């Protein structure tokens, strides 16, 4: 059989990249992270973590005093959903390299419930951020993130907490 020129070039590129030790994008890991955003964050299905997250999961920016692992992660998404019950999100970009996936996201919602001690303001917010997840055996095992937390506080009309108290922000001591 004759191989198409496109397939031949692609195969040569993949062989060359493998020989040089470069890692190609991993579609299965990207699909897992897309589910992470859609089911876990956007739909607020905290129990999706049981399928998406390894029992030994490490959140490198967990809130002070938060439970470790899946339990802490579930409580974190529930807190966001309590504060912003109409929260919606979009995945703006996914980039993968081996076992790492980077996602750029946008979340928006109306502050209608308690949000980490902030009384409901009725204000609408729009926040962007970047997550980095390490995937092993089809589950997330590590998580780092950075979001526009200062912008979030400004949109809520509040003064941000002291430096080092905001996980995932440039103000955090992580």
Concise synopsis of the structure shown:
The protein has 174 residues and is an alpha+beta fold. 33% of the residues lie in helices and 29% in strands. 21% of the residues are buried.
Could you describe the 3D structure shown?
This protein has 174 residues and is α+β, with helices and mostly antiparallel strands. It has five helices and five strands. It has helices at residues 5-19, 27-42, 49-52, 69-83, 149-156; strands spanning 53-59, 88-97, 100-110, 124-136, 139-147. A five-stranded mixed sheet has the order 1-5-4-3-2. The longest helix is centred in the first third of the chain and has 16 residues, at 27-42. Mean pLDDT is 82; it is low at 4-19 and 169-174.
Task: Please report the number of helical segments.
Answer: 5
Q: Which structural category fits the helices and strands?
A: alpha+beta
Helix content: 25-40%
What's the story with the biggest beta sheet? 5 strands, mixed
Q: What key attributes describe this structure?
A:
single chain; 174 residues; alpha+beta; globular
Show the helix and strand layout:
Elements: H1 5-19, H2 27-42, H3 49-52, E1 53-59, H4 69-83, E2 88-97, E3 100-110, E4 124-136, E5 139-147, H5 149-156
Parallel strand pairs: 1-5
Antiparallel strand pairs: 2-3, 3-4, 4-5
């Amino acid at each position: 059989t004759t191989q198409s020129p496109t397939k031949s070039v692609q195969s040569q590129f993949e062989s060359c990249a493998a020989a040089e030790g470069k890692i190609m994008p991993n579609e299965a890991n990207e699909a897992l992270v897309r589910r992470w955003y859609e089911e876990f964050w956007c739909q607020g299905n905290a129990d999706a973590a049981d399928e998406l997250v390894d029992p030994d999961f490490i959140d490198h920016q967990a809130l002070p005093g938060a439970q470790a692992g899946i339990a802490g992660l579930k409580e974190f998404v529930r807190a966001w959903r309590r504060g912003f019950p109409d929260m919606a999100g979009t995945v703006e970009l996914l980039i993968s390299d081996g076992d790492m996936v980077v996602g750029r996201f946008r979340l928006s919602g109306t502050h209608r419930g308690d949000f980490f001690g902030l009384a409901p303001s009725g204000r609408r917010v729009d926040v962007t951020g970047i997550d980095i997840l390490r995937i092993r055996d089809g589950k997330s095992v590590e998580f780092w993130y950075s979001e526009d937390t200062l912008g979030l506080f400004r949109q809520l009309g509040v003064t941000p907490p002291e430096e080092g108290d905001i996980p995932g922000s440039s103000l955090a001591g992580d």
